[in-house]
Amino acid sequence: MNKQEIKEKVIAILKKYTRREEVWENFSDTSDILNDLKINSARLVDIILDIEDEFDLEVEDEAMDRIRTINDVVEIIAEKKAEKKD
Amino acid sequence: MPGNDLIWLASARTSAWQQRKEVIAKILTDRERGQFEEAKDPFTGIWAFWACKEAAYKAWQQSEHKAFNNPKRIEIRFDKLFSRGPLHSMARIGKRQFEINGFVGRHLIFASALRADEKALRHFFFPGGNERAFEEEASRYFGKSLSLRKNKRNHPVLADEAGKIIEISKSHDGPLLAFTVPER
Fold it and tell me: What is the ipTM score, two decimals?
């Protein structure tokens, strides 16, 4: 799975938890999940759990702390997937 | 610099957390899990922990100006976990400690956090979208005209006509807005 495919799946997960459609009008890879996409921190826990289910991996506490943007999520998933292959 | 959090229980009941036991491991430390397992009402218990963590995080963030996402970096210790009634706990984030007070009601959980060396707090509750009513009430309480704004870090503040700022905390869930301000 390449990063573009990961990103599409991540965006589909994020869209489940955004209340306002308009946040997706001007989003980018560097959109801040909490501030720009207006996702609250309780929902961020759901997003992490959805990612673990979707990609069959574990997002440890330290990795969770690194997440600010859509790109951060994609990078963490890509790293975990690469680790699994090795 | 206060922090607060409001959980509207009707919304919480429809949350995906209801179906996900993994949430406990994601948000509670080992020590917290011990106390959570003693709770008579796990639904209220987990949301009481969450409200305390959110309130403590907001209070911490106002002075530290940093952010983190791992809820286990905040450790909550309740005097006792009630399914209904007053809520009191201590929160620790790194070296900082906060006292949390609030209540678990029929419809909502409310928690507010202040540092051990700070004064008491005052809370205001309004229907959602009624921020003007809060400005009027806060102006009466502090005895001067105040308007609700956001500072450069996107935190809510009250500003007087001379530009003097009072740091506050704001939460919105379900039909309610909750504001917490330092005691005058």
Answer: 0.85
